[in-house]
Amino acid sequence: MEVIIQHDEEAATVLAARIIARRLRAKPKLVLGLATGRTMERVYAKLAEMHRKEGLDFSLCQTFNLDEYVGLAPDNRDSYHFFMKEHLFSRINIDIRNTHLPNGMAADLEKECENYERLIANAGGIDLQLLGIGADGHIGFNEPLSALKSRTREKALTPATIRQNGPLFDSPDKMPRRGLTMGVGTILESKQCLLLATGAEKAEILARAVEGPITSMISASALQLHQRCCIVTDEAAASRLEEKDYYRWVFENEPEWADFRK
Ligand code: GLP
């Protein structure tokens, strides 16, 4: 795991977008895992800008989103299908047939989840998985006690998640109580993970995920097992990390990051 601390939210967002862009330029047929949430809105705005201004090309890229609410149709404004179209897919040159999200309206949700796993495998697995972190430490909708080997499945959402995401709904009581999500095991199989966390409200849970023990109570802590995981944060979200100086030293000295140091 590597932790890159940037001064503020803007710098952290730009860095995350540049990491994605570099991978996409190196491999135009990139299989990209995507996430949702307020943090990702800003990343997608940057990627759309890079597409517009620098010609960043998504035409051969395939995407797989982490999760979707159960019971929301793709044209529902609160669905993640809608979120992705609005914030990213309609703003870049991606072939919409190459974009995938689990279908929370499927008649047989279990089959839908199995099928989603199959689609990912058929695509050759995820090259780069983008992640946020929930207030309760979830990645995707892998709520506390999610098995570290879990696969794509239906999951009940916790009160913490309902509190966190409810305000994003026109009427918070309409927020579904269940979601479909890639499992922790599915996420750990991606070739590279990139987690972006910004803002003081993420500081405590981020420190527990990065520096605390690996536990199914905090799904993001499972990323400590990943062979290639990078955490990008701003100073506010990094404020509870104990080894900040060490992380800064690594970032300054790792040849891999030379292009990303100003
Ligand atoms: C939702 C998503 C998660 C995401 C989280 C972070 O719960 N299911 O994948 O990590 O939001 O949200 P925000 O960026 O709004 O803090």
Quick structural gist:
The protein is built from nine helices and ten strands. It is of the alpha/beta class and 262 residues long.
Which ligands does the model contain, each kind named once?
A: 2-amino-2-deoxy-6-O-phosphono-alpha-D-glucopyranose
Alpha-beta content class: alpha/beta
In helices, the fraction of residues equals 25-40%
Mean pLDDT: 97
Low-confidence stretches: none
Describe what this molecule looks like in 3D:
- With 262 residues, the protein is α/β, with parallel strands linked by helices.
- 35% of the residues lie in helices and 16% in strands.
- It has helices at 9-26, 38-54, 80-87, 109-122, 159-165, 184-188, 203-211, 235-238, 244-253, and strands at residues 2-6, 31-34, 62-65, 67-69, 99-100, 128-131, 153-156, 178-181, 193-197, 229-234.
- The protein has a seven-stranded parallel sheet with strand order 1-10-9-6-2-3-5.
- α1 (9-26) packs across α2 (38-54).
- The longest helix has 18 residues, at 9-26.
- The two termini are 22 Å apart.
- 43% of the residues are buried.
- The mean pLDDT is 97.
- The structure holds 2-amino-2-deoxy-6-O-phosphono-alpha-D-glucopyranose (GLP).
- Residues 35-39, 66-67, 132-134, 140-141, 161, 165 line the site of 2-amino-2-deoxy-6-O-phosphono-alpha-D-glucopyranose.
- The site of 2-amino-2-deoxy-6-O-phosphono-alpha-D-glucopyranose (GLP) has 14 residues, from α2 and α5.
